[in-house]
Structures
1.
Amino acid sequence: MAIEGATSARTVAKTLSWRFFATGSTIIIGFLLTGSWGTAFAVGVPDVLIKSILYFQHERVWLSPSFQSVSRPLLYKMLSWKVIALTCTILIAYAVNGDAEVAFKLGCS
């Protein structure tokens, strides 16, 4: 059973709007942690590309019929996305900066 109004176009709009704000905050926090706009954008650009794909897929999975019977789906959906997003940011920040402490601070912010 599909969820009413849960179209791919809606998921794309949700993905783009969320990534706009989330990437902006990643870039700003990256700058505040490193003092470098270059590093902040070097983290932010792949972050937006990778997380847009991951977020779209995550949304579509949670809209699938097999996940509709999960108790407390919003809680698990939120927690699962947070783990995915946090891990992604940490890995990207570490790959760009090579500083594990900055990567964890940015990922956990």
2.
Amino acid sequence: MSSTQEVGSIFGEGVGPATAMLRSPTVIIASIGLWGMNVYFFRLFGINYVRVLHLDLVKEKEAMAGTKSSSSQTNKNNGSSSAELSDGKEQFADNGNVPPDSRTGIVMIGTSGKNSDEESTPFTPYLMDHPGAEVTAPKLFFLSFFLLALLHLTPYVWIHWLGGDIMTAVFAFYGSVAVGIAVPLPSTRWVRHILMVVLQRAAELINPRCACNGTMPRPIPFIDVFFADGMCSLSKVFFDWGMLSLIATHYPHPVPASTHSIVIPSLVAALPYLIRARQCIIMHTVGRYKNDPKRYQHTLNTIKYLTSIFPLSLSAFQKTVSIEAAEKLEPLLLLLLAVNAFYALTWDIVMDWGMLSDPTAVLAASVVGEMCVPTGVANEKKQCAHAMLRPRLRFGVLASTGILIADAVLRFSWLLRFCETSLFPSKDVFVLVTQFLEVFRRAIWNLLRVEWEQSKQTKAKRLEQGGEKGKVFEAYSDEEEFPLMTNMSLQLQMSAPIRPASVIRS
């Protein structure tokens, strides 16, 4: 969620690169570079983020294919279509690959073998439809630096050399980027493929996924949840886009100070939260069909996103009343912002990262000492930091603690509003800084969120394998890795080889 759900000023002229029309592309470009940082650390710490993001899509595709196959068998007197489907799945499994997703065009290499789990093979970057379409951290870094340079160069050339204005300069920048992507150069193939994936996932956000004929709606895949959460951090960017549409509509005249000039951008800014809340409602419905006792968590998550919409709505209302009336509403706005920040921070730590979920363990850790909490293995104990966070920390204790603290601080970056005039030269600079702080918070949030999702997926797959291996792993928590280095004899008894935990960092 955004750290500040307030409505920005849309009638100011702006200063330099912080001009309202330039700050949204600046933040998007920064997000590209920060995703490059995510990719770098995922690969460095052996987190197969591609498999994590696309596993639900693969399962959904297989389920839909299985349903069609069953229907075909009912209508025909032979099972050829089902056999072909089964053969196709076994072929991918024997190769250690996952079938390519027809909607994303992504092939995940070395991530889901027949008798392997998520940890069984080293991390391998994924490929798209054609060679050269791999997405790597250096490519994302170079793209972000290039776009940032183009963003600063285009307005300068357009205004000082061609005699244009900032409005047309912004559209010239977007046009230049569109042309650069459309030109079929081999070096930009990966950009076109990623853009298609983003557009496809964006389209899925408005997919009804409804319950037809009384059947259960399709669950929301993790990649769409992850995508929508990222959009929430770009709420201010959505507001700027709504404002840009108003400016374009009234161009070359200024935007009138009317109610609709506030309502339209504010509705656009609230769109990511509404999408995410809708996803939670759908998942609650899925849980009701499955009699899931934990479906109430989706209701609590829906409330969390509503706490983001409340301050945004109140801030928009303040723009439509007198200064005196707006000042009287300021304490209520601060209360709503504080409630949202505390609620979202708690959800980050406990639900999104799986940390601090056992207060008893935390109490024991604080009382007994440094090596205090049993892992479930005889004669072994975990450090107190693992007890307070969780036993399995791929990024290590120090990095995970640092991310937690940074996330907590950045959740309250809206407090900068109290020193806005002393720290920032203009309102636009303040908004730009808070936007950047939020996308940076989202980038470090991504690290622990994907790590935690990988742990849950790994545990789920181990339990699905059943038999002796499943019973052994069932004793461990979702976040724990099986202690391979100290149980090599038991490892030899298992049917599938498991990669040594060489990348475990703590």
